[in-house]
Design brief:
Layout lengths: L3 E3 L5 E3 L11 H12 L5 E2 H8 L7 H16 L12 E4 L2 E4 L7 H12 L4 H12 L17 H24 L3 H14 L4 H13 L3 H19 L5 H12 L9 H20 L5 H14 L4 H20 L3 H9 L13 H17 L6 H14 L7 H16 L2 H13 L8 H18 L2 H17 L3 H18 L4 H15 L4 H15 L5 H4 L2 H12 L16 H11 L3 H10 L9 H15 L2 H11 L19 H12 L25
Antiparallel strand pairs: 1-2, 3-5, 4-5
Length: 678
């Protein structure tokens, strides 16, 4: 049964049919509301007691346990006796509500509002309409004065106001200004200090040919701000007033200039439809250019581009022109930073098509076309074994350098980057690739590759423990992303900042909360190869590093990382024999950004299970990365210094101070992690 929780109004619970679930009295409801407000984090028992009672009575802890037991029976009526709870779980010193993000209206609301920011106006309007419809009253109604509820109530209310304004902006962008006016009028009356609301109302009035009313609204806003707060209106309000007075078409977001741009787009596409027949080679090549642009516009665009990419390649192959097929395949030079494909099956098909095109190219075909096919093979074969992909990437690089083509070289270097994971400890090599990408892209105006270069260097500097250097690259990523409207880049910098907190001594609660916030940015971002299983893996790595139990809810989705997590999870439940069997089934990690972290998890499980052969494998694999932070090369998570893991392995294996040479891998000279600087 899928249980749904509601806090956008009075606290409520419903079963899979939509029928309300009786959660007993006000204290039961308070416990549930407090755990929802914790957003999946553990609330210690003593904290819960203090939050539920102003003056806790004698026996408060026992009463709390009674409330929890009653809630569990209500939420999971079919749960067998002694079977562990799946929703309201005991975790360490307290309790947590472990439920999918889409089952809590507040969590779902936040995800929808965040996702709408990167959607086209039509989709954003539909999403925001639906999300605002989930509100049934003030958030956490009935707990208005509770200190634990105030921050969450305030945060959700601010998010609701932002959503109302974003919905109005979407209506304006769609030419539906008249629909926006009534809601905005009520909005500014209720929240007169929100400058953005005044701006949108004035703009909506202006768009409906009510110029005088628009100027009156701006005058009211100016007077209110000056008289009541003693401040001048912000630059956007002032600029709109000037623009209206001049009757210009220069309003920045969704203004008349945008309408002009929309007309230009409509006219140009209509002319293209008339001039270029459907099914022609020109159309296919144009489609690739459109998909390339679409892929960097946000979650919806990235998913749409991925869905259409192979269809475009297949259509080109049907025309029987190898050079056209090669241009269609190689024209999709969208920079990639993550080493796990979002669609491995499609990636395999693209590599096969590129190989077919290479074989079919006639003698004398363009070297640049050939290099683009080779770079595509290097890029799309990320994480695979064998020599073909790295050889193809290096050959593409050699051709690009010989031709002196900066765009082609940037594309080839992206492929080379994807093939620098054949062993651990290669962060310095990737740092050099990132540095060249930044220099190359800056000098030739290649914004997307400049962004890629800074992300590569952010990852590398993280791995080397150079957070000052990584901070600079994160700031550059955010700056370039804002300037060139690349919203997905912010997902990676949000995760980096969570990693930084975790690696620089933040408390476990703060670090895990930061990871959870970063994960919310990933939800719906259109990058399943990054998203699936990443949050629990980040938390597991942190807990293993800090020596805390690996206790997680049964239904946690570990995605592709399940084999490396399973032995530790089984150990946390005292299922030692099963853990040993699971450890023996653990494969070598894929050749990617998380290899060091996964080897550290394997090594820790082997230590706990006293499995010397597995310990030796892990030590040998980790030895080249002795001076790095495990997993930090991802820019997303870390399991701590690799050297600490190696020292534990050496100690248990009885060769402290020696080498991890069971397979001949060299150990680096011992030194301080992170001594390198960019």
């Amino acid at each position: 049964m899928r249980v749904r929780f509601g806090v956008l109004g009075p606290v409520g619970v419903w079963d899979g049919t939509g029928a309300p679930i009786d959660v007993k009295g006000p204290k039961h409801r308070a416990v549930l509301a407090r755990l929802v407000a914790a957003r999946g984090r553990v609330v210690p028992v003593d904290r819960l007691v203090d939050d539920i009672w102003t003056e806790p009575p004698a026996g408060a802890v026992s009463a709390l346990r009674t409330f929890v037991a009653a809630l569990r029976r209500a939420l999971e009526p079919d749960r067998a006796p002694r079977e562990p709870a799946r929703l309201l779980v005991t975790d360490g010193p307290g309790y947590a509500l472990r439920t999918a993000p889409d089952t809590v209206d507040a969590w779902r609301f936040e995800q929808s509002v965040t996702a709408a920011a990167t959607m086209p106006a039509r989709s954003a309007l539909d999403s925001l309409d639906q999300a605002l419809g989930w509100w049934r009253g003030p958030a956490y109604a009935g707990f208005d004065e509770e200190p634990w509820a105030r921050p969450e109530r305030s945060r959700l209310e601010q998010l609701r106001l932002q959503a109302i304004e974003a919905r109005a902006e979407a209506r304006l962008a769609l030419g539906r200004a008249g629909e926006a006016v009534p809601e905005l009028d009520a909005h500014v009356a209720e929240h007169p200090w929100r400058e953005e609301a005044w701006r949108l109302l004035a703009l909506a009035l202006y768009r409906t040919d009510r110029q005088g009313e628009a100027l009156t609204v701006l005058a009211r806003a100016r007077g209110l701000l000056l008289d009541q707060l003693g401040i001048d209106p912000g630059p956007r309000l002032r600029r709109l007033e000037v623009d209206i007075l001049r009757q210009t078409e220069q309003e920045e977001t969704g203004g008349p200039a945008t309408r002009t741009a929309e007309r230009v787009w409509a006219d140009a596409t209509a002319a293209y439809d008339r001039a270029v027949s459907s099914g022609t080679r020109a159309r296919l090549e144009s489609t690739v250019g459109l998909l390339r642009t679409l892929a960097v516009t946000g979650a919806g665009g990235l998913e749409a581009a991925r869905e259409q990419r192979f269809a475009t390649i297949a259509a080109a192959e049907q025309l029987g022109d190898p050079e056209l097929t090669a241009r269609v395949i190689g024209g999709y030079d969208v920079p990639s930073i993550w080493t796990r494909s979002d669609d491995p099956e499609q990636a395999t098909r693209i590599v096969a098509a590129a190989e077919r095109a290479l074989t079919a190219l006639r003698p004398g075909s363009s070297d640049a076309i050939r290099a683009r096919l080779l770079a595509t093979i290097g890029l799309e074969s990320r994480g695979t074994a064998g020599t073909r992909a790295p050889d193809a990437a290096r050959e593409a690089e050699r051709i690009a350098r010989r031709l002196g083509d900066p765009t082609l070289l940037a594309f080839a270097l992206n492929g080379v980057f994807m093939q620098t994971f054949h062993r651990t400890g290669l962060a310095p090599e990737r740092d050099e690739i990132g540095a060249e990408l930044v220099t190359l892209a800056t000098g030739h105006g290649l914004a997307t590759y400049e962004l890629l270069g800074h992300l590569v260097r952010l990852q590398a500097r993280c791995a080397l423990g150079d957070f000052a250097g990584a901070d600079g690259h994160a700031a550059a990523v955010d700056r370039i992303a804002r300037r060139h409207e690349r919203p997905l880049a912010g997902v990676f910098t949000a995760w980096y900042r969570a990693l930084r907190l975790a690696a620089t001594g933040a408390s476990p609660e703060v670090a895990e909360e930061a990871y959870g916030d970063a994960a919310s940015r990933l939800a719906g971002a259109g990058m399943p190869g990054v998203e699936r299983g990443l949050l629990p893996l980040a938390l597991l790595c942190l807990r293993v590093w800090q020596g805390r139990p690996a206790r997680f809810a049964d239904r946690t989705d570990w995605g592709p990382y399940a084999p490396w997590a399973r032995p530790l999870l089984l150990l946390a439940r005292d299922r030692r024999a099963e853990a040993v069997a699971a450890l023996h089934r653990v494969p070598d990690p894929p050749r990617d950004l998380l290899a060091e972290a996964l080897w550290c998890l394997t090594g820790q499980a082997a230590i706990m299970l006293d499995e010397p052969a597995v310990m030796a494998r892990a030590a040998a694999a980790l030895a080249p990365a002795a001076d790095e932070l495990a997993g930090a090369g991802s820019g997303m998570l870390t399991a701590g210094p690799v050297r600490e893991h190696l020292d534990r392995l050496d100690t248990v294996l009885g060769r402290a101070g020696g080498t991890a040479t069971d397979t001949g891998a060299p150990r680096r000279t011992r030194g301080r992690t992170g001594a390198r600087r960019a």
